[in-house]
Amino acid sequence: MPTLEPTAVPVALSTPQPIRMSRVFAPTLKEDPVDAEVASHRLLVRAAMIRKVASGVYSFLPLGYRVLQKVERIVREEMEAIGCQELRMPIIQPAELWHESGRWSDYGPELFRLDDRHGHSFALAPTHEELVTFLVRNELRSYRELPQSLFHVTNKYRDEIRPRFGLLRAREFIMKDAYSFHATKDDLQATYDDMSRAYGRICERLGLAYRPVEADSGQIGGKVTCEFMALAEAGEAEIAYCDCGFAANTEVAEARIRPLAHEADALEKLHTPIEGTIAALAAFLKVPEAATVKALAVKAPEGAVSVLFVPGDHELGEVKADHAIPGLDFLTDEEMLEAGLVKGYVGPVGLPEGVRVVADDSLRDVARWVVGANEAAYHYLGAAPGTDFTVDAWAPLARAQEGDRCPVCGNLLRFARGIEVGQVFQLGTKYSESMNARYMDEEGREQPFVMGCYGWGVTRSLAAVVEQHNDEGGIVWPLAVAPAEVAVLPLVVGDDEVGPAAERIAAGLAAEGVEVAIDDRTERAGVKFNDADLVGWPYQVVVGRRGLEAGEVELKDRRSGEKQLLPLDGIVVRIATMLKEARPHAHS
Predict the structure, then answer these.
(1) Which end of the chain offers a freer environment for a tag, N or C, measured as fewer CB atoms within 10 Å?
(2) Could you check whether the bond before residue 348 is cis, i.e. omega within 30 degrees of 0?
(3) Which residue from 563, 584, 557, 564 is spatially nearest to 476, judged by alpha carbons?
(4) Which class does domain 64-254+415-466 fall in?
(5) Which CATH superfamily is domain 13-48+484-588 in?
(6) Cβ contacts of residue 296 below 8 Å, gap of 6+?
């Protein structure tokens, strides 16, 4: 009978080992991917951080995954610092829960839907409000158990009509979503404020220049919400802001708009044989576009037709319009004919019976309007609200733009583009009411939970970091999220001097707690330099034969590009000390 040898038990290494680039799966690219439109997409692919699997779906390669894990760790630390508890919820969700909340039909085509072999319907989670409400309503019974704050970090799915910009608008992405349950609105406000401060700290630790801005709650719900915008030209959102502290997404930003009144003293019908556009009308009348009024015909879900009026030099804010008429849709040319409206010449005077007039608040003080006459090739000058026509409702409708003024202090607004990396919401009882999630209060009465939710785009914020931190050479990672803090670049591999010296430096740095990579590939020096800049190692230690003869190595700061020759003796301690001072502090 054979003798059984004792099983070898792996011994944990006390010191992290350097990343050996000769063994890392990191196929960098010299050329930009053909479908890359923004810097983050281009550089994350070229630097071997991600690879496309399908439209809007990406794999993270080892270096990219290291960065992703660091972003997740920062997010987790800030959530735990405010008492939020991590759990794990499934990605696949029963359709019944979405029917309870009413969002199965309301969410729209972005919701991935599927049926199992038994014919049961499910959704791939774009978010988890329904599931967490289902979980809590079966477990929390009393006000004594409140408040509760729960979060998880997991994949999310949205069937974007046009995935683009790499990780910025993907169909599969990683998000941290947190949910809080309360007995009172004041308690919710306290958690909302804690979350908002935590999101600010996450931005700071990631090295993001950002602004918290007023926003729309969209499909999530609730009336109080704030977006955290990383400022970047690649951002799909536009924000209006002022030095007084006001900031809002232009979809919802209120602004002081100054349209111009027409000089006519009375209603005058004028033949205007022009194309039915504001630009053509203003040119024909030789007046600014701000002296005209733009009309847009819409219908409510039940079919009622309204015409929305905004200053001629402004665009309709569609989110604002949807608040004024929930679920509205624009009339097609055929529907306009059926409603008795003449495309390009619609105005508030003499509209067909039953068509409502909804006007932007900024037009309240305009005594005379220039508008369509509801007849081809004719306009009215000097149409007076209250005399020549009736406004059925006033509402904020116009989208804020250059030249508008701050609603708080009156100064000119400034504009920037941003990437939404996080958003916090006060949901109130939207989900607890519809899903019958209740607790027992101090008087023994059942009450719906007061809820909040808080989303953070992990993969999106990673891409936002790259959008803000790059140059012509590649990525310039902030120290907190770089795949490693230092890269050691031996210009010769396999010799008796350069290679061993580089190995000693790398091992010494690792022993000092420095995250270090060593490019031990048998590549030319130029290839190593280019890849080091492309990948974005914050600091690069270049070890060459000539430098060693002088007892020196070169240290390059990737961000500034500054290079300095330093004595080989003591280089490990010097770099380790420098990094201890440079590392951003965790939450305190």
Answers:
(1) N
(2) no
(3) 557
(4) alpha beta
(5) Anticodon-binding domain (3.40.50.800)
(6) 307, 308, 309, 310, 316, 321, 330
Nearest to 561 by CA among 535, 539, 528, 534: 539
Model confidence at 188, pLDDT cuts 50, 70, 90, reads very high
Per-residue pLDDT reduced to its tens digit, 523-581:
999 999 999 999 999 999 999 999 999 999 999 999 999 999 999 999 999 999 999 99
Q: What is the rounded (10 degree) CA torsion for 23, 26, 27, 30? A: -130
pLDDT at 220: 61
> What is the residue whose two structure tokens read 């409708």?
397
- Bin 363: left if φ > 0, else alpha if -120 < ψ < 50, else beta: alpha
Cβ atoms within 10 Å, residue 397: 27
For residue 73, the number of C-alpha atoms closer than 13 Å in the C-beta half-sphere is 10
CATH class assigned to 268-395: alpha beta
Supply angle C-alpha 148, 152, 157, rounded to 5. Answer: 130
Is there a contact between 351 and 359 (Cβ–Cβ < 8 Å)?
no
Confidence at residue 259, expressed as pLDDT on a 0 to 100 scale: 87
Global pTM reads: 0.89
Residues near 131 by beta carbon (within 8 Å), at least 6 away in sequence: 89, 90, 93, 97, 125
Q: Of the given ranges (269-278, 461-470, 471-480), which has the lowest mean pLDDT?
A: 269-278
Q: Is residue 459 a contact partner of residue 422, using CB atoms and an 8 Å limit?
A: no
Backbone angles phi, psi at 324, to 5 degrees: -70, -40
- Mean confidence (pLDDT) of the chain: 93
Question: How far, in Å, CA of 339 to CA of 355, rounded?
Answer: 8
**How many C-beta atoms surround the C-beta of residue 233 within 10 A?**
12
